[in-house]
């Protein structure tokens, strides 16, 4: 049987390779289509694209439209998480931006916000391994290490009792640079000179607070402390304070008034806060004086009080205090305690610092992005009812309408109506909405439009604290909140 001779193919090997490539690309596209449609990969890639849009500033008009949709609640897509390196992001607290600014009067360490087009539109992610925080009151003494995984303070300040790493937790022995044996023993020393107990003192300000062990320890005395510290090389120290359940926020005494009304605090404390109180014609001491109630107490512990090589600074500090008629109650080693006078200022016409009283038109309670004044707040503008020792003790002051309610027409009637309204609302929140108010599950709350602080007052018997925020463009009712023995801050949303 003969063989059939077939013609030899004329296609060369190169042509076959090209067909292979085309076929592989086709099947690859088909496979990618199925992956995009039927697996999470498609969602992930879409999310990445949306995140790029949210972070992008290349098209301001598109960004503004997106912001408007979000603010109106009409943005129906999920807002993505920011990149992982945003975990420590704080608005207006960018160390890279701030490092380029002037260091005069610590201007560079104040809040400096980027332009709206430069702000990220994404959700700040929690640290990897984040856990539900330890509940109060246990949280005062220990928190999860994974929630704020920064060891720098523990490494540098552990020998002073600030905080230490212990297994999966940070623990807080209660120490500080000036009270390494613990805040409790330090407070016992102050108790010899200051009425810590009994309700005479209720609101306190702790400047340069570290991890806020001092303010945390005062809670057991019924004293509610606003603690603040700047963001620095230790990251944000106040993150540890908030995780512990202690009131605190990032703040710097630099070129602006602190965001509190005049005569807010019964007690102001500085433990090695390193604020140069007598610099710039005693501008910083004057700001402290603005915030302290007549008859209130000022404690400065650490430099320059009887500190080596700071004799002149210590002498100047005493001279400023004398000029403002502060009574020096005690100097206990490196701790000095003064009491602010009650009544009209005794400021003389001539003094070595050139200090003068502020004009009658100055509103000492206006303090939102307001430049520091180099003049002394008139004590007489505090009136007798603001003075420590003459105003009602805690808790009676919570329910008594203070004179500052008169900042509004029919203020006293509004105060009483607001208190009753919030008592009803909080009862509704607890009984109907099941918000877990009054339980250990909720420790700190922000009231974004606090008015007279009625919400916080209705929760005062619960194991929590409220940061009352009064918008800067609304009526200045924050003074009423402090008169009641509550705490708060000005802000502009």
Automatic annotation (TrEMBL):
GO MF terms listed in the record are: S-adenosylmethionine-dependent methyltransferase activity
Q: Where in the cell is it found?
A: Endomembrane system; Membrane
Q: What class of enzyme is it?
A: transferase
Matches recorded under Pfam families: Methyltransf_29
Q: Which InterPro entries match?
A: Put_SAM_MeTrfase, SAM-dependent_MTases_sf
Bilayer topology reads: Single-pass membrane protein; Single-pass type II membrane protein
Tell me which GO cellular component terms the UniProt record holds. endosome; membrane; trans-Golgi network
Tell me if Protein biosynthesis is a UniProt keyword of this record: no
BP-aspect Gene Ontology terms: methylation
Q: Does the keyword Membrane apply?
A: yes
Into which family does the record put it? Belongs to the methyltransferase superfamily.
Output this protein's name: Methyltransferase
